[in-house]
């Protein structure tokens, strides 16, 4: 039962017909249909020796893409020291869902909570699916492509403190765009990262004409 | 000439056990010499806060080694680390539970202004939610920088009209 990189993909294809290799820069990676995902992962864990779950994460391809979301599992074999990546496209572009692997690896619990929090992918049969980084009741999923980096204004998680201080979670002004450093400048003041567009900042608001 | 005492220092034979001074001087000396910090150590700056309490940098020289995690027993909240919007209401509640007089030191870039985290989840400076007395820049500031801030805090306290404020609130 060897799990040398080239053989893992063919071993999986022998057992599951719809597994396809995926272009990858580092480790062998396979695309699987969502319905087979748990069976493929269980086979990898039990038969092929990939006993260590490294990560469960997700991808938001684009607002207009279909399928919009994919779930990615990274596995590692502690016996053979090989990695493998399993990717499955979620069904549902507006309410993406995927099966949970908590029964296979308990470590998936928090990883799936993070993926749900930041991308909105619901994991079925997860024992405790709630937000982990943002607060419960936060209305958005921040890592989606249509969510701005600066954020959207929401009230603070605690209403009492919000009314006491008058503070809300305001979008942060990006001061005219990303900060870019000048390369090759010897004068360090000029080489410092500065905004691409310096016509507006926190004190001078951006004109609405743009 | 008020007195024939030409000694520079306090001489018990002449002044006995009575020293005449201003209430402000005594109150401010007491307060500034024993600032008990409430370490709100949220991130990496908390490590440097701990380091300033160790033997090499020794915050005990300033009377501030008594790190009281209970807001009821502390004087100065040192916000050391990134404050997220999720954590901000709890920082405010702890500040509200501290007894007067109380002060706040914003330690590090994240507490002062949000630091490198200009995003949807980070409070852009703890001064948006609590009033700050001293800001310390650095990422993280060296323990000596924190001690410098503590000295500035002491100087700030010594300038307070303590007696007037006490009488006003009574």
Shape of chain B: elongated
- Sheet/helix structural class of chain A: alpha+beta
Tally of helical runs of chain B: 7
**What letter string, H or E per element, gives the SSE order of chain A?**
HEEHEEEEHEEHEEHE
**Can you count the beta strands of chain B?**
4
- Arithmetic mean pLDDT of chain B: 91
Q: What's the Cα radius of gyration of chain B?
A: 19 Å
Side-by-side strand order of the widest sheet of chain B:
1-2-3-4
Oligomer: heterodimer
Description:
The complex is a heterodimer of chains A (about 210) and B (about 170). Chain A is about 20% helix and about 20% strand. By secondary structure, chain A is of the alpha+beta class. In chain A, the strands form 4 sheets. A 5-stranded mixed beta sheet of chain A has the order 1-2-5-4-3. A two-stranded parallel sheet of chain A has the order 6-7. Chain A has a two-stranded antiparallel sheet with strand order 8-9. In chain A, β6 (about 95-100), α3 (about 110-120) and β7 (about 120-125) form a beta-alpha-beta unit. The longest helix of chain A has 12 residues, at about 110-120. The termini of chain A are far apart. The relative contact order of chain A is 0.10. Chain B has about 170 residues and is of the alpha/beta class. Chain B has a 4-stranded parallel beta sheet with strand order 1-2-3-4. In chain B, β3 (about 105), α5 (about 110-115) and β4 form a beta-alpha-beta unit. In chain B, about 40% of the residues are buried. The interface of A and B includes residues 134, 142, 149, 150 and 167 of A.
Write the layout of secondary structure elements.
The complex is a heterodimer of chains A (210) and B (170).
Chain A (H helix, E strand, L loop, with lengths): L4 H11 L4 E2 L7 E4 L4 H10 L5 E9 L8 E9 L4 E8 L7 E3 L8 H12 L2 E3 L29 E2 L3 H7 L2 E2 L9 E2 L7 H4 L2 E2 L15
Parallel strand pairs in A: 2-5, 6-7
Antiparallel strand pairs in A: 1-2, 3-4, 4-5, 8-9, 10-11
Chain B lengths: L11 H4 L7 H11 L3 E5 L3 H8 L23 E5 L7 H10 L5 E5 H6 L20 E3 L6 H16 L3 H8 L1
Parallel strand pairs in B: 1-2, 2-3, 3-4
Helix pairs in contact in B: 2-6, 3-6
């Amino acid at each position: 039962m060897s799990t040398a990189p080239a053989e893992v993909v063919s071993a999986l294809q022998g057992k599951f017909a719809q597994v396809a290799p995926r272009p990858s820069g580092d480790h062998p990676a396979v695309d699987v249909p969502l319905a087979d995902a748990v069976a493929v992962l269980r086979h990898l864990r039990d038969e092929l020796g990939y006993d260590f779950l490294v990560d469960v994460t997700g991808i938001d391809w684009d607002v207009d893409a279909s399928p919009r979301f994919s779930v990615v599992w990274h596995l590692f074999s502690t016996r053979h020291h090989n990695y493998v990546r399993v990717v499955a496209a979620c069904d549902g572009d507006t309410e993406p869902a995927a099966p949970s692997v908590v029964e296979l690896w308990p470590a998936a619990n928090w990883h799936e909570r993070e993926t749900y929090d930041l991308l909105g992918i619901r994991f079925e049969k997860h024992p405790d699916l709630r937000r982990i980084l943002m607060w419960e009741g936060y209305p958005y999923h921040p890592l989606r492509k249509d969510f701005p980096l600066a954020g959207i204004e929401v009230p603070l998680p605690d209403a009492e403190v919000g009314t006491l201080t008058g503070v809300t979670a305001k979008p942060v002004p990006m001061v005219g765009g990303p900060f870019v450093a000048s390369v090759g400048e010897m004068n360090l003041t000029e080489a410092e990262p500065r905004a691409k567009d310096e016509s507006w900042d926190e004190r001078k608001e951006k004109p609405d004409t743009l | 000439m008020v007195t024939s005492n030409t000694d520079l220092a306090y001489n018990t034979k002449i002044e006995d056990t009575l020293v005449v001074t201003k209430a402000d001087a005594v109150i401010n000396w007491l307060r500034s010499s024993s600032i008990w910090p409430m370490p709100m150590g949220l991130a990496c700056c908390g490590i440097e806060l701990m380091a300033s309490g160790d033997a090499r940098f020794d915050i005990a020289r300033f009377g501030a080694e008594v790190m009281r995690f209970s807001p009821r027993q502390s004087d100065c909240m040192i916000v050391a680390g990134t404050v997220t919007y999720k954590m901000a209401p709890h920082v405010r509640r702890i500040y509200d539970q501290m007894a007067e007089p109380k002060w706040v030191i914003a330690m590090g870039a994240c507490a002062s202004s949000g630091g490198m985290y200009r995003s949807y989840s980070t409070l852009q400076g703890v001064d948006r939610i609590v009033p700050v007395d001293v800001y310390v820049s650095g990422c993280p500031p060296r323990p000596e920088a924190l001690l410098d801030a503590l000295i500035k805090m002491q100087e700030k306290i010594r300038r307070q009209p303590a007696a007037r404020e006490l009488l006003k609130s009574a």
